[in-house]
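(Deposited chain)
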Amino acid sequence: MPRIVVDVMLKPEILDPQGKAIVGALPRLGFTAFSAVRQGKRFELTVDGEVTEEILAQAREAAATMLSNPVIEDVVNVEVVAD
């Protein structure tokens, strides 16, 4: 069954305490190449049948109105992933 993947990230101006904690821990674990981390959310919406433009539009609307908080988050990706 096909899936629609929605990725949501905090807006750049919003502080990301989890990302700060991760970037602080990475060097202690031997990962020294990274200077910043931003964490986000990923949603996978399973579709029964074919993903039509109408279904993709519904996914985009759900992403903008329910899956993200538009005050502090941006929807950065909505894409169909076939299994």
About this structure: The mean pLDDT is 96. The longest strand covers residues 73-81.
